[in-house]
Amino acid sequence: MTENELTEIIIGCAIRVHKALGPGLLESAYEACLAYEIEKAGLILERQKALPLIYESRSQIR
């Protein structure tokens, strides 16, 4: 699958969630529904994956 094909699937999932829920909910609600749509589309995903971050002189701010 190309990057463009993958992007099309993910954006389509996001649009379906937005159309179904509309604006005004907490981010966690959209995240859960988007994860469901992405998995329903046959893709594998990891939610809220921790990534290392360095900001100024502080490392691994969470």
List the topology elements.
Layout: H1 3-21, H2 27-40, E1 54-55, E2 58-59
Helix pairs in contact: 1-2
What does this structure look like?
With 62 residues, this protein is mainly alpha-helical. The chain has one domain (3-59). Helix content is 53%, strand content 6%. It has helices at 3-21, 27-40; strands at 54-55, 58-59. Strands 1-2 form a two-stranded antiparallel sheet. Strand 1 (54-55) and strand 2 form a beta hairpin. It is extended and about 40 Å long. The mean pLDDT is 92.
Kindly list the characteristics that best describe this protein:
two-stranded antiparallel sheet; extended; mainly alpha; 6% strand; 62 residues; 2 strands; single chain
How far apart the termini lie comes to: 33 Å
Which segments are poorly predicted (pLDDT under 50) over 5 or more consecutive residues? Answer: none
Number of strand elements: 2
Oligomer: single chain
Summing up helix and strand content along with how strands pair, one would put the structural category as: mainly alpha
Helices and strands, in order, run as HHEE
- Bin the strand percentage: 5-15%
Helix content class: 40-55%
Identify the strand order in the major beta sheet. 1-2
Give the biggest sheet. 2 strands, antiparallel
Q: What is the mean pLDDT?
A: 92
- What is the radius of gyration computed over CA atoms, rounded to a whole number of angstroms? 15 Å
- Quick one: overall form? extended
Summed up, the helix count is: 2
* The number of domains: 1
